[in-house]
Predict the structure.
Amino acid sequence: MTTINRSSARFAGFCSAFKLPRATPVKPCWSCRRLANDPNTRYSQGSPFGRQRPLGREPSQPDVLGPLKEGYGRAPSAGSNAQALNSSIPIADFNVKDFSMQDETPAPIQNHHLHILATKHNTHITLSKPDRGAIISVAAGNIGFRKSARGTFDAAFQLAAHVMNRIQNDGLLVQIKRLELVFNGFGVGRQAVTKALLGFEGKRLRDKITRVADSTRVKIGGCRSPKPRRLG
């Protein structure tokens, strides 16, 4: 009868799933060898690979509260030093991310818009927010011009001066960081508003202009134009 060595007898219970007799030398499998080398794990003899709860603390985890548990409930000695106790306690590195120190890119400054609609018979000026919400919207008729006087150069110039004074009086210069001019139409109001911006009236608003655009629609083909008016 073959004698069972010590290493084979250690894994005889784990490899009982193979239905081998106890007297036969058994070569442990890889799983049995790996589990047997773990000192913090105990096994049940009923299951060849049964694993129960680990015994004690894992070796890789330091006992942070160990020094505190030893001195709990005892009066401090005369020669004890609190600093020495604190130095013996390991500090756990939790790797907490500091969100307050992140380099956040600032949001881009958006443009306010000053729309100038210069038609043949009137001039409209609208100041809008970056989301196109209107702040000020006036025309030549709102400042006292009537009928054919609304389409003159003087009416458009006074309208532009009125809008610029209102922007300053309402405290909107602080909100406006960048301003975009949007022209529409070929009436005399285009030249009048430009002259007002370049003059004394627009000295506070002139430096904020970053872009000038023209949104006038250009007809390519399309419907037939009205017959030109002939007098006489």
